[in-house]
Specification:
GO terms for molecular function: DNA-binding transcription factor activity; transcription cis-regulatory region binding. The protein has helices at 8-20, 23-30, 34-48, 64-95, 104-109, 111-121, 134-142, 189-193, 205-213, 229-237, 247-256, 285-303, and strands spanning 53-56, 59-62, 97-103, 126-132, 148-151, 161-174, 187-188, 198-200, 224-226, 243-246, 260-262, 264-265, 270-277. It is of the alpha/beta class. Strands 3, 4, 5, 6, 10, 11 and 13 form a 7-stranded mixed β-sheet that branches. The termini are far apart.
Amino acid sequence: MAIHRPDLGFLEALVAIDDHGSLGAAARAVGMAQPNVSRAVREWERKLGLALIERSPRGSTLTAAGTVVVHWAREVLSDVDRLLDAAAALRTDQEAELTIAASMTVAECLLPSWLGEFRRHHPDVKVHLQVHNSRQVFDRLAAGECDLGFVESPAVPDRLHSVTVAADRLVAVVNPAHPWARRRRPLTVAELAATPLVTREPGSGTRSTLDIALAEYPRAEPLLELGSAAAIRTSVLGGVGPAVVSTLAVEDQLARGDLRAIPVDGLELDRTLRAVWRPPRKLAGPAGELVAEIVHARRASVSQGRV
């Protein structure tokens, strides 16, 4: 006949009887009522077909069979303690590591300073950074391959939670030798849409934002598709052609005059950069601490008029 496994509370009570020499003392040691301990012992004596303790006015002692059972009960409880210790160690290891998947613009322009500040406060956290486009960040989050994502995509899948971490704007830029640099009036949206551009690859947040903005206009095929804002910036600097990129990626070149920003009449390309993560909604551990620091710094900048 199959015997159900005893619960750990009974095994702890049985060991306590051996350690303390009476049902009453054992019950107090494990935080159980004495009648419950006595009832549990009788029940398991019946199930096992063994007398486990000898009861007398002077107390309760283990029978020979009870001594053997208690020996194995101690082994089981010791194994459970080792299991809990191992789980705690694994949890500590997980909490001490943070895997981030970030879209190109965030990874190139914002994360270095964010992570630098985070490392000053959390020097023991090991950070792993994966750089992808926004669509790939969503895929890796869904697959459990990272703890936290940063994206520039206009929309976030319903299954993910998000919070705004930065604001950004896309701008049309050209080499100073490009004919657009000598224009006296802004481009029209139709002119921009009809021009072959150096662009990001499909799936990137920058490309998605631009595609949505120009969706109602006839589009030229891309002049060149590249995998990062840095590559696009280098191409435009080299005179390959115009591009629409994040102001974060070209602010230094615009300030120096190495690139020219071209106004486009009626086209607004403001966008929101977000941290994204899987449920639950409350983000805990190092990921939660990093996002909290970023959001706090952003709010402080907004309140001081720097953003």
